[in-house]
Specification:
The protein is α+β, with helices and mostly antiparallel strands and about 170 residues long. The protein has 8 helices and 4 strands. The chain has helices spanning about 5-20, 25-35, 50-60, 75-90, 95-105, 115-120, 125-130, 140-150; strands spanning about 45-50, 70, 110-115, 135. The longest helix is centred in the middle third of the chain and has 15 residues, at about 75-90. The model has no long low-confidence stretch (mean pLDDT about 95).
């Protein structure tokens, strides 16, 4: 029997009740680090790839090179989950359906370059401020799609089957 997102949600509440000194960040780490496997059914690819990632993939000439492109949580998953836990904790409004809905939202990914991802980590950065332009899957050539599907959309992406190569 495996641990579910609902189990983690309940564990967060118990930890906070029993040990109020735990931080919201500590509780977020239960979701994103300790029990990260619970996020797999919620992690979806949006279908968007940055222009720079497309260029980097084309430069690979069909051979995947690690650490050039990355799956990027455009909803800033760590900050967003921490904030969600903080809000629920402060209001004492523990709402699992809302928590699950937000996890789905926060877990969505785009494909960017590693350097774009590093720039996005900085405070108040957005795709617009970093200058990232996105291209949809339908507008990618098959060589780029093959690299993305085979190396970035692994089995831990819930909607992997949606992204076929035509």
């Amino acid at each position: 029997m495996s641990v579910t997102l609902k189990d983690i949600f309940e564990l967060i509440q118990v930890c906070i009740k029993v040990k109020p000194q735990v931080t919201n960040r500590d509780m977020r780490c239960l979701v994103t680090r300790v029990f990260s496997q619970v996020l797999k059914p919620y992690t979806n690819f949006t279908g968007y790839v940055s222009e720079n990632a497309v260029v980097a993939i084309k430069e690979m000439n069909g051979i995947y090179q690690k650490h050039k492109v990355i799956r990027e949580h455009h909803e800033k998953i760590h900050k967003s989950i921490t904030s969600l836990i903080k809000d629920m904790r402060e209001t004492n409004q523990w709402n699992y359906p809302l928590f699950e809905k937000k996890i789905i939202e926060f877990s969505s990914i785009n494909i960017t370059t590693t350097s774009e991802n590093e720039q996005l980590i900085t405070k108040n950065s957005t795709y617009q401020t970093v200058g990232i332009k996105l291209i949809h899957w339908n507008d990618l050539d098959s060589g780029v799609k093959i690299i993305i599907r085979n190396h970035l959309l692994r089995s831990d992406i819930a909607n992997r089957s949606k992204w076929v190569i035509s």
